[in-house]
Amino acid sequence: MKANPRAEVQRGSVRTPVLAREAQGEERARLWAQVLERDQSYATYEARTTRRIPVVALEPAARVTTGYLPRSRVRIGVQRANA
């Protein structure tokens, strides 16, 4: 996603072009808290690793740029890496 932040999110039959970026600072803390509210297993995962688990924020591409052509699809959620 860092190399190509352009993606497409599909919810039902609606497809939305988005741009992905890694959340930082207060935004990351707020989003991470929301992740933990939905699934406490991420707290266990976080405790078992020394790395900071990235949180990816998706923004509708229309708000960020024009002339957007989606390149990939993403699944909304936190992606677990091998611990």
Give a written overview of the molecule:
The chain has 83 residues and is an alpha+beta fold. It has one domain (1-10, 23-73). It is 30% helix and 24% strand. Strands 1-2-3 form a 3-stranded antiparallel β-sheet. Strand 1 and strand 2 form a beta hairpin. The radius of gyration is 14 Å and the shape is globular. The two termini are 20 Å apart. 5% of the residues are buried. The model is unreliable at 78-83 (pLDDT under 50).
Write the layout of secondary structure elements.
Layout: E1 6-11, E2 14-22, H1 25-38, H2 41-47, E3 56-60, H3 61-64
Antiparallel strand pairs: 1-2, 2-3
> Helix and strand succession?
EEHHEH
User: In one word, what is the shape?
Assistant: globular
Total separate domains? 1
Radius of gyration: 14 Å
Q: How would you sum up the major sheet?
A: 3 strands, antiparallel
Distance between the termini: 20 Å
Question: How do the strands line up in the largest sheet?
Answer: 1-2-3
- Could you tell me the number of beta strands? 3
**Percent strand:** 15-25%
**Low-confidence stretches at least 5 residues in length (pLDDT < 50)?**
78-83
What oligomeric state do the depicted chains represent? single chain
Question: What is the helical fraction, as a range of percent?
Answer: 25-40%
**Given the helix and strand composition, which structural class is it?**
alpha+beta
Mean pLDDT reading: 82
Helix segment tally = 3
